[in-house]
Amino acid sequence: MVQLSRLCLRKYGNFVDNLRLYVCGGSGGMGLPRLGGQGGNGGDVWVVASKNMNLKKFKEKYPKKRFVGENGANSSVKALKGLKGADKEISAPVGITVTTDDGKILGDLNSDGQRLIVVKGGRGGAYYSEFQPSKGQARHIRLDLKLIADLGLVGFPNAGKSSLLTAMSNARPQVANYAFTTLRPEIGKLMYKDYKQISVADLPGLIEGAHVNKGMGHRFLKHVERTKQLLFVVDVSGFQLAAKTPLRSAFEAVQLLTKELELYKEELVSKPALLVVNKMDLPDAEDKLAELKEQLQNPHEYSNLLPDDMIPKSYMSFKHVVPVSASTGFGVDHLKSCIRESIDEEAMETKENIHQERLQALRSQSHGHL
């Protein structure tokens, strides 16, 4: 028999946002012709949302397994109606879309305990089928973490994220100079000449300690999981959260943002990322940008600038470092080009991965028939 139980992952480093698995309903039980007995139906397979599950845990809990409902019991002299086979339940994260391999949506799971049947068990043998049972349905399905946007803006308050989103897109977020400018994700659309659209989410401002749910920490970080790529935004001059907190340089801001993401969920740091250095219209901005680029090239040499508990385990690797001024418009068009390039590259990689998966499945099938 062909082995169809391979779990396929789409990954950004260790960040998993898509799982492919094999599901099969149980076969029906045999009917009993001489007494008109009816076999039990096979068990169905369900996907059930659980708030304690994420796709990484799922991969660890069910490594390379297929999910099959129990077969229905045969009809017998003692039990003319055979028992139904037990259903198989797959525990999956809240906030996923379940699709078939060719992209047809089977359903969304948006709340804890919500259930979706993905394949039905076969019918038990009975008079109408000459007492022969049928097999259960079988298919590959995908569990997809629902994305709120292609790109998520990540930055401390007052880094200029809302102003940047306004400068880049058709969004009109409320912009004000206080710690939590954005109280819920504001989605903007970047429009390109060939009509391509890229969605960008301005997420609630992070503060130091967000990973332990200070401020709006967890609400913010939950949304970060649901974007394909990250767009870090830092003020070229650095920032100071309040009069009592230390002034942080742009380099320190990058590392603190990285640390907050890492402490919440380590694999978030594996996502593709770009870095926007904002407020380039300020005095000495060019010198500060040159210093930041040097520090990002050799982050280990400058880690002594940070307290030990704020040094990330792994430093972010940025596809592009783009200087801009959201208030004057400097660098915004170049930034849009860099975003487009990064999103298109990733789409090509995903397409190639799916192509390779299908080739591998075809090869497995051909070996199975030999």
How would you describe what is shown here?
25% of the residues lie in helices and 25% in strands. Residues 1-13 and 173-183 have low confidence and may be disordered. The longest helix has 38 residues, at 332-369. The radius of gyration is 26 Å and the shape is elongated. It has helices at residues 55-61, 161-168, 217-224, 250-264, 285-297, 299-302, 332-369; strands at 8-12, 15-24, 45-50, 67-68, 88-93, 96-100, 105-109, 115-119, 138-145, 149-154, 186-191, 197-202, 227-235, 273-278, 318-323. The protein contains 7 helices and 15 strands. A hairpin with a 4-residue loop joins strand 6 and strand 7. The strands form 3 sheets. Strands 1, 2, 4, 6, 7 and 9 form a 6-stranded mixed beta sheet that branches. Strands 11-12-10-13-14-15 form a 6-stranded mixed beta sheet, with helices on both faces. With 370 residues, the protein is of the alpha/beta class.
